[in-house]
Amino acid sequence: MAKYLLLKHYRGAPKAVNDVPMSQWTEDEISAHVRYMRDFADRLSASGEFVDSQALAPEGTFVRYGGEGKPPVTDGPFAETKDLIAGWMIIDVDSYERAVELAGELSAAPGKDGEPIHEWLELRPFYGNAPTITE
Amino acid sequence: MTVDEALLRSLTPKVLGILVRRGADFAAAEDAVQEALAEAVRGWPRNPPRDPLGWLVTAAWRKFLDATRTDTARRRREDLVHAEPAPGPVPGTDDTLWLYFLCAHPSLTPSSAVALTLRAVGGLTTRQIARAYLVPEATMAQRISRAKKTVAGVRFDRPGDVATVLRVLYLVFNEGYSGDVDLAAEAIRLTRQLAAAIEDPEVAGLLALMLLHHARRASRTAADGSLVPLAAQDRARWDTAMIAEGVEVLQAALAQDRLGEFQAQAAIAALHADAPTAEETDWVQIVEWYDELLALTGSPVVRLNRAVAVGEADGPRAGLRALAELDGSLPRHTAVAAYLHERDGDPQKAARLYAEAAEKAANLAEREYLTRQAARLNARKNPPGR
């Protein structure tokens, strides 16, 4: 019973095996990909392991506190930012092994020529509750 | 006026047991009981029943029959043969006990067993369980429904293994609480109910362990939510009545002379609870109990905790020697090393190890605690304003 984040990157992850931009796929290939992602989430719901899934737009702005009485400062996007998050899925599973297994399945989503993308997903554990009994 | 939820929930396993005994299959009976509970929550404030158990059994049985009729009609339409086996409790055993065994069946994953136990034995709603474990209600509903399917064919021609039930209850207790359900209190209630249904010193041992830890809950976190370690806790805030009960339950269990890991853990908790101040803790006896616990479990986590106790009983050097024999990748190993090095008079090394331990912490409260320890020692090294 532990939650994990499966993090998908636009930028910042190592190169996928089947690394062709979506704009160069056929429409059927795109449909197959979308269907795979939806079915994957449905399957996790059915197995009682799904928590959340969200996709993020690629554009973003950096914001910081501007000082007392001043508006926040906005800037960017910075070209040199290496990491760009595309979205995530949160799962609640019984073991780390299960989390790895599911990340592997998600990374097998079909891309160009219907072949698995083999995309690198970042698997990050959530902090859990502090257990009551420790000593 | 609201419904006496504690009463309702304590009746849940009895009602479910009666339905199954009458021949209802477990999964359908469990749904029917949940519906009857919901109806009771709605209706009882205006019309409290004279016989709550009788009312619930009647309501649940009616729900079960309604659902079966609908289901049968549907099945007929689909031209399916209805051949559902009805797993029933062993005649002569307590229905409640049978339910505990079923919900903790070894074919279930730990998270499924926990969810099913909280719903079928504990009478919590799917929504409450989902919120306690911070998952969507639909996900929790699926987890429970799959768990029910998994145990659908289980028959009990002999009692199950009580150890599997205890592991599930221990998991629930150790989760602490989030959402609107106090899982620790719920685990205690369920363990108490189990202890009433079966004579087993380990069940009593687990109940004692829970009570002895729960009694210290108020002192375990500061007002800002940060962790307060045992040695720094305000012992005046410990619940002495709960400690007394825990000790009494433990002594009765130990008197049966069938030691198990929960009794040994409870004995350690009792020795902590018994010390008027941290300095007066009987660490020598605690080390002896860790030796017992180690003989029973062989667990590396026990070895690690034993090293801490050795450090208190025989000094930090002895603790470090005990620690050196253990695998450095154990959770909390670095944190223990940091603590022992500080006590051994090496604050610089301790600060470095605390910072390293903070990065490996498994939860936020622990990470913050360890970071603060590193910061405290670093500030001593470089006092501000110099």
From TrEMBL, chain A:
Family to which this protein belongs: Belongs to the YciI family.
PANTHER family: BLL7171 PROTEIN, BLL7171 PROTEIN-RELATED
Pfam family, one: YCII
Top-rank lineage group of the source organism: Bacteria
Domain YCII-related: 24-106
Protein name: Uncharacterized conserved protein
Organism: Lentzea xinjiangensis
UniProtKB/TrEMBL annotation, chain B:
Top-level taxon of origin: Bacteria
Span of domain RNA polymerase sigma-70 region: 8-71
Chain ranges of the DUF6596 domain: 163-253
InterPro entries xref list: DUF6596, RNA_pol_sigma70_r2, RNA_pol_sigma70_r4_t2, RNA_pol_sigma_r2, RNA_pol_sigma_r3/r4-like, WH-like_DNA-bd_sf
Keyword list, A-Z: Sigma factor, Transcription, Transcription regulation
Domain RNA polymerase sigma factor 70 region 4 type: 100-150
Biological process annotations from GO: DNA-templated transcription initiation
One annotated GO molecular function: sigma factor activity
Family note: Belongs to the sigma-70 factor family. ECF subfamily.
PANTHER family registered for this protein in UniProt: BLL6612 PROTEIN, BLL6612 PROTEIN-RELATED
Protein name: RNA polymerase, sigma subunit, ECF family
Organism, as annotated: Lentzea xinjiangensis
